[in-house]
Specification:
This is Transmembrane protein. This protein is of the alpha+beta class and about 625 residues long. The protein contains 18 helices and 16 strands. Among the domains are: about 35 residues, no CATH class; about 200 residues, no CATH class; about 40 residues. A three-stranded antiparallel beta sheet has the order 1-8-2. A three-stranded antiparallel beta sheet has the order 5-4-6. The protein is extended. The two termini are about 20 Å apart.
């Protein structure tokens, strides 16, 4: 009985023997026994059968994840091994001095190209607004009638849709601010240095913000913003009744044509000498002079009583306004009002009197003009208080602290004719100048695009790829290329060449387009300067500088860039040929490269075989230890 119980006890090493069964020859028998046991157990425990079925469904997914994890781990280990071998291989390599020189050259090239593009864009002394000012003058309407009104400042509603204010001064308005000066006596600074006045405003005013409760408690006051305003009223300068001058502007003038054309087209000829021009047959000659006078019979206008010659109006208190037509000068077309006695060379800029600073809360602060436009002629002048009174904005001195309305400063009205144009330059050349000016912005667009491409070229080629290429030429091992050491340098080099050639082609296309745009305009402007078509000092300065900009800056710099890119493409071909002839690694010979790569491959294969042998030995050792252990 004891022997039976002893036989019934399961052997202690049975589990280990069961684990070894898959490695023995009776695998099939084990599988059959296992299937029979599983079937019997399932018959006895149906619930476990359901669970086993779930496990069997999940096992393939778990096995797949395990396989992927093991594969990634194995690849990582192989990359580490390859990286170490690549480093050992690269230590034996000489530094490729030719490619280092190549990288240094491209850094210099990228800096030079960037500098040329910046200079080409920066050195444009003429802006789109300068040419537009010329075009606006040549395209302005002439005036064939002028009226005045006291009550209604809207000329269109007063006289009709063809009428508009003779002049309009745009007052830009002010920002909101916080005044913490606490009633400082600003007049103490009036005769001091301008810098002291500027410093006072910076310390005492918080620009473009309202006062906080803490500031209000300290005595600060919020200064409300003032909206922009349009001034179009004038007076006699002696506190007379304000009035608005309304002009009727007409189109149809043919300034670019000569007398024979005017006669053939049966148009009225106005002006004399070089100032002859045409107007439609149903239109009188336009206004060529305006002014104010205290003489009621100025130029005998009241006696002539002919509006085709001129007219004169009584504005009250012995103050008269007059206009005259058909004189030797060109017609008046532009009228501006400014502080001081001169209009800025760039007419849209607002002048200010010398040694005066503009109010700090102004949204667009004025500065004294360095250069002025002599084609504008003074018509009349009144002091600053009269100017603000006539436009009903004297209240600004109360709304804005330290807003100084001072009678010592004058405001003046100016008039300007068409820019004088030589008769020999009229016709096709005149039309070409107008056309090229209307498309001048394409030059600046192309320069901006070229600058953007050049900056990209500098960042990508001059910095990023230059650093990568230099490190590679100095035998730096990139881990991303560890599994392909034979192609590391050429792979990086080809990417660099690809990016560089792509950016160079883009730059060359932009430069060629710029050449096409600039060349046409350059030749037209050159004809204008060579033929002395314009006698106006501002226009002469403008066209002379425009020719210089287009020729010396944009044209020359673009030509220099093209030469640099041409040399660069030749060097690219030389370096590519050098790479193909010398093999994969820094100028080493092919057979030397192949030998070392074979060694790498053999070492990698041997190491892999050794790892497999070690694993097999470990398995056999474990099996033998289990078999030799006591039962």
């Amino acid at each position: 009985m004891a022997e039976e119980e002893k036989n019934l006890e399961p052997p202690q090493n049975a589990p280990d023997q069961e684990l070894l069964k898959p490695d023995l020859d009776n695998n099939q028998q084990y599988d059959q026994d296992g299937q029979q046991q599983t079937q019997k157990f399932s018959e006895i425990n149906p619930m476990s059968s359901v669970l086993n079925q779930g496990y069997q469904e999940e096992d393939p997914r778990m096995m797949r994840r395990d396989i992927i994890k093991k594969k990634k781990k194995r690849q990582k280990e192989q990359r580490l091994i390859s990286a170490r071998r690549l480093k050992r291989l690269l230590r034996k390599k000489p530094v490729d001095k030719l490619r280092l020189a190549y990288q240094a050259y491209f850094f210099i090239v990228s800096v030079a190209v960037l500098a040329l593009s910046i200079l080409s864009y920066r050195d444009q002394t003429v802006y789109e607004g300068d040419y537009q000012q010329f075009l606006d003058n040549m395209g302005s309407y002439v005036i064939d009638d002028i009226q005045f009104t006291y009550t209604n400042k809207n000329c269109k509603s007063q006289f009709g849709s063809e009428y508009s204010s003779l002049y309009e001064y745009y007052w830009p308005g002010t920002l909101i601010g916080c005044d913490c000066s606490k009633g400082f006596n600003f007049t103490l600074l009036q005769d001091k240095n301008i810098n002291n006045i500027e410093g006072f405003f910076k310390q005492s005013f918080m620009l473009d913000r309202i006062c906080s409760q803490e500031m209000l408690a300290r005595g600060c006051k919020t200064v409300d913003e003032q909206q922009p305003k349009v001034f179009n009223s004038w007076n006699d300068g002696s506190y007379g009744r304000p009035f608005v001058l309304c002009a009727r502007r007409q189109t149809g003038i043919s300034l670019q044509t000569n007398q024979s054309y005017c006669e053939s087209e049966q148009k009225n000829i106005c002006g004399i000498g070089d100032n002859k021009f045409c107007v439609p047959s149903d239109m009188s000659c336009p206004v060529s002079e305006i002014g104010f006078s205290t003489n009621s019979n100025h130029y005998n206008l009241s006696k002539l009583n002919n509006t085709n010659i001129g007219n004169i109006f009584d504005l009250g208190k012995g103050f008269y306004f007059y206009y005259i037509k058909n004189t030797s000068t060109l017609p008046l077309i532009e009228f501006r009002v400014t502080e001081g006695t001169k209009i800025c060379r760039r007419n849209l800029e607002q002048n200010i009197s010398p040694n005066r600073i503009d109010y700090p809360l102004m949204t667009d602060r004025r500065e004294q003009c360095e250069n002025t436009d002599p084609l504008f002629k003074l018509v009349h002048s009144i002091d600053e208080e009269q100017f603000y009174l006539s436009n009903n904005v004297i209240y600004l001195s109360e709304k804005l602290p330290y807003f100084n309305i001072n009678t010592t400063y004058n405001w003046s009205m100016h008039s300007k004719t068409y820019i004088p144009w030589a008769p020999n330059c009229r016709g096709q050349l005149f039309d070409d100048v107008i056309h090229e000016g209307s498309t001048l912005f394409f030059v600046y667009v192309s320069l901006r695009v070229q600058l953007g491409v050049t900056i990209t070229y500098f960042i990508v080629i001059g910095l990023i790829f230059n650093i990568v290429g230099t490190m590679t030429a100095c035998n730096f091992a990139w881990s991303c290329m560890a599994t392909r050491p034979e192609s590391q340098y050429n792979y990086i080099f080809l990417i660099e060449i690809g990016f560089k050639i792509t950016l160079q082609i883009a730059e060359i296309i932009v430069i060629c387009v710029s050449f096409a745009i600039i060349d046409t305009k350059r030749l037209v402007i050159k004809d204008v300067n060579d033929n002395k078509c314009i006698s106006d000092p501002v226009s002469e300065f403008f066209f002379t500088n425009l020719e210089t900009d287009l020729t010396n800056f944009a044209w020359s710099y673009n030509l220099a860039n093209l030469v640099i890119f041409a040399v660069t493409l030749v060097l690219d071909l030389i370096i590519i040929k050098h790479s193909l002839n010398q093999g994969h690694h820094h100028g080493a010979k092919k057979h030397h490269e192949q030998k070392e790569h074979q060694e790498l491959d053999m070492g990698s294969h041997a190491e892999s075989c050794n790892q497999q042998e070690v694993k097999s030995d470990l398995k056999l050792q474990v099996k033998s230890d289990i078999l030799q252990s006591p039962q």
